[in-house]
Amino acid sequence: MKILSTRGASPEKILQAIDALLAADLDFINGRWRGFEILTGHGLDGLQRGRRSVI
Length: 55
Known about the structure:
By secondary structure, this protein is an all-alpha fold. It contains three helices and no strands.
């Protein structure tokens, strides 16, 4: 998926990608996750830069 490799897309493309996802199994999503910011051109882009996010 180009969004993941470039870490950027328009809000419309992000919403299309999310809407196309299948539901996740609860056992699969349980646990710790590491993520990254996807730049969309929003005024708050870059806010997470330099911060380590672990959920």
